[in-house]
Task: structure prediction
Amino acid sequence: MLSYIARRIVATIPVVLMVALFVFSLLYIAPGDPAAIIAGDQATPADVERIRASLGLDRPFLVRFFDWFWHVLHGDLGTSIFTNLPVTHMIAQRIEPTVSLMTLTLILSLSLAIPMGVIAAWKHGTWIDRAVMMTAVLGFSTPVFVIGYVLAYIFALRLDWLPVQGFTSISEGLLPFLRNLILPAVALGLVYMALIARITRATMLDVLSQDYVRTAKAKGVGQRGVLFLHALKNAAVPIVTIVGIGFAALIGGAVVTESVFAIPGLGRLTVDAILRRDYPVIQGVVLLFSFVYVLVNLGVDLLYTLFDPRIRY
Amino acid sequence: MDRRGFLKAAAIAATGALTAPRLSLAADNKTLRFIPQANLANLDPIWTTQYVVRNGSLLIWDMLYGVNDQLEPQPQMCEGHEASADFKTWTFKLRPGLKFHDGEPVLAKDAVASILRWMARDATMGGPIKKRMDALEVVDDRTFRFRLNQPYPKMLFALGKSSTPSLFIMPERIAATDPFKQITEYVGSGPMRFNKDEWVPGAKAIFEKFDGYAPRSEKANWLSGGKRINFDRIEWQIVPDVATAAAALQNGEVDWWETPSSDLVPLLKQNPNVAVDIADPLGNIGSFRINHLHPPFNDVRARRAIQIALSQEDYMGAVVGSDQALWKTLPGFFTPDTPLYTENGGEPLKGKRDYALAKKLLAEAGYKNEPVVLLVATDVGITKAQGDVTADLLKRIGVNVDYQALDWGTVGQRRAKKEKPSEGGWNIFHTWHAGADCVNPAPYIALDASGDTAWFGWPKSDLVQEKIGAWYAAPDLAAEKVAIAELNKAAMDHVVYVPTGFFKGYQAWRKNVSGVVKAPFPVFWDVTKA
Result:
């Protein structure tokens, strides 16, 4: 197992390298000029040229790429063109809100979606099943920002229970932390919840028709035991797979959610950097996201062995 | 912990939670929470000319002179000045007791270093002064002197100009930074210090009161007078989504929003706790920017075709909606309701729009249905609205329009290209100019018609340049008005660019905040919060 993990981690290196090259090339050919943005509307074309030169943006592609890559190998993601701050510092400033949002979203989604899917499968064909599926379809088809606005309108503006925007660090207390994050987590989690609930239901329906489930029932195992011990554990592999795949959707959703709720996370950092063509920041964040995504999928692969002992690496 | 211990701890925690809001309320009126017009991504007001950076810099750095609401430069860090009769020698003396945030006194050498850095980047006024300058010398710790080889009567306006880049005074060691590189220390002598440790670019910027600041005794008036801050802390919160910003203001999570979207203003006006008013009385001038280098608009007849067909009502309706208080037509280039405003030569922009004559003029200019490249920054509401109206206008006058939907970053790059439109260049793009920059020709870079060195579009007209020179040489307001009237006509005849109208924006704040004034920049001094 340990050698498998080591091999997989080593295998992430070429993936991340390819991502780095791809992102760098894409940004190089993409239109846009940070020097023009920095100089502003009042600047002369000559000023724009001098700023471009001072930022090194007039150097050839390969020189820029290898210079950047050499620094990345030394753990230096570069310096933001606009803020003059190290990219690692900017990422460190933004990581807590994004990790908090994603963690809370995951907890909320999994703790609601899996029971919903199990119950829908158990009560297959009843009004409960239809209600769960209708909720899932709604969650799927409603854009995150619409859900965000509706939640903010109801719970912040009308009821005055929760704040509209912002983020409070967990170091300032659990309650203020949750007050700021609960609406964004629900907004972001609905799509994820819908995805997991549907997969859980479909997989559970399949498992519940298996012989060993009938055997368990015949042996007198209670309904709860059948559902959660026998059926759910065997349905877990596809569910865990979809949780891993859905993580990419979660990253994309976080970009929107952080903008709607003004959360100073990595999603907003990415959007701001793209709009301004802050190349070092874009490259740094995309590298981080790709690395995390690869690690999450490694975690998913390892979880398979937990749920299905027949799987060995 | 046993059960009793747990209950006791929980009770204490609950009591704390209940009393916390009272404590924070007491401190709350010493903190102002402000949503600025854009993200404060850096804080070097010379390196970048973005207005949001200038606005933040106004808190950190002070200026030698500052304009009041009559656009008159008033002494700010300077105690006073002496000018020779021929306007070639200017001597300035700093006020006593000025201190930087690091405790060091503000000296003449700091002012000189700051002026030199500003001159290197300010093409509108700093550059021309530098060209005329024989020396800029330190006389003593509080005195410095310009020695020029040509008269420069507008010196005070230059040193106090609010258009970017404005002249902010920094310590000599910081002002020695290459003007094309960013400074890394934010030490000023203004009324607030910048808290770099709490700065999260794109999310928040924190300013803290500088107790060592010595305000002038006069009442504050825009950038002049005593800049008295009534807050210990001013928090700039970056809220990119306008609906969220509106909700945060209504919910009392922020105190003041610099640029509410005009779509949301009716909603804000309904809220009894929110006040809404015009933000900047000098407003903005919409711009239909034409590339003078390539056909068809290298022929003045084609540019005039646009002038006589363009309906400013259509543009303003698209930009700010139906709120009549927010816009007016503008048959001229200068900011309405300012001393030099004129409509001389503005007839082509008045009266019924004449599409037939526009088509005739285009034909005379040799236009034969070639694609006309229109760059539209669709991520900026004002440029998107103008671009859509222009696409419609061009079709009406028989122009084959190539509408290129881009983001502002790409338009910023494309507009610098002088190549033919078919080779990556362009014919038309839209922007707007702050009215504060259009009160006279000095900061008005868009009116420069010097050809290759002019602003994007590169208009060339010797007559326009001659009239700009006449304004610089004008000894008094009456002479300035004559020069500006002639300049306006010359620029209209040459169609340097086509104004699409004059428009203003709103600002909104909680009603427990008082002292918010109308100005081209947020004025934090004398603002209080109950």
Observations:
- Chain B has 15 helices and 21 strands.
- The CA atoms of residues 28 and 529 of chain B lie 9 Å apart.
- Chain B has a mean pLDDT of 93.
